[in-house]
Each structure stands twice: as C-alpha cells, then as structure tokens.
Amino acid sequence: MLGFRFHNPTVVHFGQGSIARLAEAVPPEARVLLLFGGGSIKRNGVHAEVRAALEGRHVVEFGGIEPNPVYETIMRAAALARSERVDLILAVGGGSVADAGKFLAAVTPLDPALDPWDHWIENGPPAQVLPVGVVLTLPATGSESNPVSVISHRARGLKLPFASEATRPQFAVLDPSTMASLDRRQRENGVVDAFTHVVEQYLTYDVTAPVQHGFSETLMRVLIEWGPKLVSENSDEARATVMWAANQALNGLIGAGVPQDWSTHMIGHAMTAAYGVDHARTLTAVMPSLLRFKRAEKRGMLLRYARKVWDIAEPDADAAIEDAIARTEAFFRQMGCPARLAELAPVAVDPELIVRHLAEVGQTALGERNDIGLDEARRILALAA
Q: Which residues of the chain fall short of a pLDDT of 50?
C-alpha cells in the first residue's frame, strides 16, 4: 500500500436543523464574512437560519459567487474582508461557494500589491490563512471537507485547481433539508459529480487497499441506487443519502494510500473554461471514452468494477469491462447527463482548444501513471466525439 498521513479532519454537523449548530461552531467574538452565490439562500430560508444562528456576531456579506467561481470576483471579496478585518470565512452554498471560500481564506492575508494567482503558482499555498466554515446546500464536490479549490481566471481564460491543507474547512454544516429547493439539473449534476470523484480514486491500477476499494464500491452502488431517486422523488431519505455519499466521496478517506487519476477532471476543467459547460457534464462526456482508451492499463480495476459495482458475471473479461463502461454511460444518461461530446450540443467542442488549455497550465502528464500527455488527451477527445 502507498504511504499516507491524515490531516486534521473537518468537524461535520449533519442532519435536519443542524444550521443552528453555527451558534456553537462560530466564536461569539468572530468577525465573519458570509459568502454566498446568486441569492437562492435568501429565497429558500437558509440565509435567515444562518443569520439567526450568528446573532450577536459581526457579520458582513458578499454575494454573487459564480457556479464556476471566478478569481476576479473573489478578489473583490478579499478587499471587503480586509477592510472589515474579517477573521472567519463562512461559505454558504454549493461546492463552488465552498471553493471560493477556501481560496478567499488563503488570499485575503496576502499583501494586496501581490497577484495572488501568480504568487500561489510560483511559491505554493500561503502559510497564513483565515479559518473557513461551510454551510452546504448542494452536495456534489465534497469541497466542504477537503482542501481543494477550483478557480477560474476570467481574464486569462484558465481554470485551475489549488490545494492547501490549511484551507480545509474547520467545520461544515450538512442539513439535507436545504436541498429541497434544488432544481432537477442541479440534482443530476450533484450525483454524477460525486460518482466521478469516486471513479477517479478507484479506477486506476490495483493495490492492496481492501478498505478503500470496498468503501468506494459501496459509495458507487449507493449513488447508482439513490441518484435516480433524488432526481425523480427528491425525498428526505434521498437527499440525506446523496448528501452524505457526496461528502464521503471526496473527503480524503477513500483516496488515502491509493493511486489517483483525475485526468477526466483536468480535461473537464479545460472544457468549462472554454465553453462554460456545467462541470459535472464535462466529466460524464469524457470519462467513458477515457476509460476505454486506458482499458489496458486499468484492466484489473475495471474488471473488479464490473463485478463488484455492476454485478456483471460475464466470464469473458473484455466483454465484462465493456459492459461496465456501457452501463456507466447508461447511468450518466439516466441522470440526464451526456456521455459523448456531441451530446453537449449546441456547444461544439474543439479538441485543439482543450489541448491548448492543458498545455498552457502545464497539465501535460495526467493520470495515475502520468502517461496522458497532450497527444493522448487529443485522442481521448476524438474517441469521445
């Protein structure tokens, strides 16, 4: 097994009514910046619950975080945080707001004369960051309890992941009732985003990790069963089940000590940067073709995936693997998401534009073996057409 070490975990408050736990999670003397997106938290009552739980604390608000959080917007939030001498970031929303909150927590203490984007790329993550808390309203990314942010730089036309253990949220509130107002597309995206997170940590090469592999298989089976229920019924049980599964899919546990891929995500980030397509839908449009392209290198785990996740008893290994990938495509389509680039219409993806983005950000050795270069990415996109 590969070596790994654990970092301080996020304290998770889970269940209906858990927003009230902010009263104990946020110190009375805290100066809080409440960060949110387009305003849905004000329409669905979450904002009122959060403000009630924060009664007596100094709170300033910044709204308008985009579904793919934009660097320039976060810089405006940083200016507000500095002027108000904020000492805690509370991100209220989905994964994009959580990502923005973590990035904001890292860049706010920096000298305003610096370009934080360049500073982070050239020098690594800042040593001093503000503490972060999250109130999650849309499960998908697991951002509420992991150290990763994915940020888009509008002026440069780039989208990049940033990671720092110092920005892992100190606490997260997961109240499934906050999902009641999500529209169908948001629910679809959340399920497949979580599913692909598991796949990226599971479908690599085989190592002795029965706990991580077994947990990953359970999470995938849960999402396959409960994802359609969330979309069609949006019941209390489905909301709670998917919210917890999405959290567990990317909090670091199933990826501890195992190789990880993430090539689908890097290609997907380039597609979102170029075309503004929903992040989750870029993943489903690419992943099946990437698995076919890398089926020889991933053969052992693909066969395990076929048998443990999809209950495929086909004795011919190649047939079982192809059946598993086909069922993955069918699941994505059942969730209303594309399984080919053509299904992103009216968007017409230019593979060369995607490859140029990968080259510009230095993502030229992707995958668990670092063997997906620019030409391989080009061939994967051609296969996905």
A: 1-4
Tokens of 221: 């089976």
Q: Tokens 């800042």 label which residue? A: 126
**If DSSP states are collapsed to H, E and C, what string results for 11-67?**
EEEECCCHHHHHHHHCCCCCEEEEECCCCHHHHCCHHHHHHHHCCCCEEEEECCCCC
Inter-residue contact 172 to 13 (CB < 8 Å): yes
Q: Which amino acid is at 377?
A: A
Tokens of 316: 């011919």
Quote the CA–CA distance of 55 and 68 in Å, as a whole number.
Answer: 30
CA distance 319 to 267: 27
Q: What is the pLDDT of residues 27-58, one digit of tens each?
A: 999 999 999 999 899 999 999 999 999 999 99
pLDDT of residue 145: 96
Question: Facing residues of 345 across strands?
Answer: none
pLDDT digits (tens, 9 = 90+) for 131-145: 999 999 999 999 999
**What pLDDT shows up at residue 39?**
87
pTM above 0.85, yes or no: yes
Q: What pLDDT was estimated at residue 221? A: 98
